[in-house]
Amino acid sequence: MHGGLTARIVEAAAIEAGAVVVDIGCGAGDTTYAAAAAGAGRVVGVDVSAPLLAEAERRRTGREAGEVTFIRADAQTYGFAAGSFDAAISRFGLMFFSDPRIAFANIATALRPGGRLVFSSWQSPQRNEYFTLPLSVLAARVPLPNQKADGPGGFSLADPDRIRDLLSGAGFDQITITSVEDTPWIARDVDDAVSYLRSTTLARSVLPTLDDEANHALDNELRMALAPKQTADGLRLGTATWLVEARYSAP
Ligand SMILES: C[S@@+](CC[C@H](N)C(=O)[O-])C[C@H]1O[C@@H](n2cnc3c(N)ncnc32)[C@H](O)[C@@H]1O
Fold it and tell me: What is the whole-number distance in angstroms between the Cα of residue 107 and the centre of ligand 1?
């Protein structure tokens, strides 16, 4: 789903042979292994989720060019050795900190002076059909929880001014924020998409409030809304993300 973005992140990180890289909120390790394949000497994936880290370990093929390790930790507070990384990367893993100022400062101190930070974050929901299309169908049936504008959540880094403010406050400069628009593969077909959407955290938190009849109707409504998005190459929805690049300038 996010393969194109992975390539953009790894390319922007300009990983040199032997570089030491940390992947924050690495999830199942896609970007961690991509950084290793790009020639890093060592890549450390950090995530709070034990099941995702188990999946990341399962994906180890033994062919990784760099040494890949995974740590289960909260990147906001984890005691990284100061100046120990040439680059920090993250694909959608920096939006969930309870205190992003502390978290970005912690990531900054893990980087050597001049080290690069490259990450992706979602732009506003309105710019992401990937979210708005299924959510509009869901919202017609169940009240959805509101994300606080600056609280942790998928859209907490949607505002470029906030990104700049957080990064410069943590000691980063040379900040560039590039819009990346895409229509990635989401699912094979509408049934595959409905099953995927039902598995998301949001759906699992609100759908138990619906009875069987309403759940059945919701599935049909989702299928109708998603059908026009079917292509010969799977079901595709529009996304808009920020690709953010910055350098740590030590104080
Ligand atoms: C949207 S997922 C992205 C996962 C992965 N980077 C990818 O693109 O597939 C966000 C990830 O950040 C992790 N995460 C959230 N808060 C974190 C924190 N404070 N420290 C480390 N990881 C965190 C989650 O467990 C999750 O795996």
Answer: 14
